[in-house]
Amino acid sequence: MKTLLRFMAASLVLLPPSFSLAQTVKKGDYTYTPPACTVVSRGTVDCRLTMTYTGREAAQSVLIRAGETKAYDAAGATYVSVSFQGGGQAGTGPEWVALPTGIPVQLTYRFEAVPTSVTTFRGVALNLNTLISFQNVPVRSVAPAPAPLPVASGVPTGFTLSLTRCTPQGTSFVCTATLTPVR
After folding, report:
1. Cα–Cα nearest to 175, from 149, 138, 146
2. Domain 22-141, CATH class in plain words
3. DSSP 13
4. What is the DSSP letter of 67?
């Protein structure tokens, strides 16, 4: 029994690490948060992450290469970043971005021609002085603003109408209507 437990414990140590969406990656003197990807317009997705320099110098510069940052969907299609923004720089790169020690700097990468059917990037690989990758990154759509509640029409004279529990159903709403006699 003890031998079996030792074997099981040793086996657990050999398992490859799993990646979670909330996982922060530390590599060398840098810490990276997982990207949050959002559809900003039809076919255009922005992925934002933060990068923090944690070394001993007062600041460090990193070379941002937008064209070397890629996202992959489940079907195997590759999307190359067309631009980036962050740390006071913007463009297609390569650009040097200064990272003050201990201060997170937000970086945003833009991907175009992403089909609306893509809801998850199977992987996002960034070249930030070293290769950093994240797996299973959700691509979130920005929810449209809710439509205004319907205007009641045709209320019989001598009654007030109140609408409750309204839920959108396509281009209209379904509501519970209550008619109350005016006293």
Report:
1. 149
2. mainly beta
3. H
4. G
